[in-house]
Amino acid sequence: MARLSEGKVFAIETPKETHLLGNIQKKSDFLQRINYVLVDDVKGQLIFGGTEGIITGRKENARHYGAVDPSGYGYECVDTDSGVMIPWGRLDQWGHLAPQFAQMWADYVQRQIALDEIQIGFYGESAAKVTKDPQGKDVNKGWMQFARDNKPTQVLTRGKAENIIRIFGENADYKNLDELAYDLKQGLNDRHRDAGDLVFLVGADLVAKEASIVYRGNSLIATEKAALNTHDLMKTFGGMPAMIVPNMPGRAAIVTSLDNLSIYTQKGSIRRSFREDQEEKAIKDSYYRNMAYAVEDLGKFSAIEFKNVKLENEQ
Q1: Contact in structure between 197 and 258 (CB atoms under 8 Å)
Q2: Is residue 1 part of a domain?
Q3: What's the Cα-to-Cα distance from 55 to each of 50, 67, 221, 286, rounded to whole Å?
Q4: Does 229 share its domain with 163?
Q5: Full-model pTM
Q6: 35 phi and psi, to 5 degrees?
Q7: Per-residue pLDDT tens digits for 142-198
Q8: Cβ atoms 164, 304 nearer than 8 A
Q9: Are residues 202 and 249 in contact, defined by beta-carbon separation less than 8 angstroms?
């Protein structure tokens, strides 16, 4: 396979930025359902921030206006770099794929970027100068950290015991996920509790534990067990559709609407690089941009602190 002898770093024009972001977004059903947009400024007010009160009414001899995003929450993009190195030996092995290789490689990289961005959205706590955490906690502040910083009352950190939320079991804070989902819904602002677009984002560990408890019962007939195997018994909790999101913490649980979660990328900040490194004997593929995570309306976001969750019989 011919190697790339010329590589360069280049900024991408806005139409191509939009196309690239769209390609990454298409690699995840979850990213397609949240706000995944370009913004002009590296720092500013939230774009889709909701109102915390009614905006309809009247004034005598004047027009009536409600305040949009009275909280004043903002976003701040930080430089973010995704890169992968393809050894020459691997390129030579893939030589027989030459006609399709470029598209296959682009799909692979974009899919990994999408998964990384989702993971950082849940795990991210800070933006370190040099990142080291394997879960991406130090790459950027994600949605959970946005809530912790701006409205910590929306993140439940304790149950009956300090810094512990016990789920499942007789003495648990929540005996099942229905109870947990319903309680989180009650933590929303009054005007959002009956919203028709709420979802229960739930970690795979919690769903697996709930399933194992159901299996331990003796009342399930064969057809019900078959339905459980296809998640048919796990589609709703607390009256809301449930979603298990890739790379979401296994013990996380969040009630919100998907369009309440945002990933912002600053226009003009995207740079792509394809470079052959003679010393490394490899091709380096890099994607650089300025990014921020935001929860548009924190009154429509309620979560548990997944780091504090204990399951049945855990000490």
Answers
A1: yes
A2: no
A3: 11, 7, 52, 45
A4: yes
A5: 0.86
A6: -80, 120
A7: 999 999 999 999 999 999 888 999 999 888 999 999 999 999 999 999 989 999 999
A8: no
A9: no
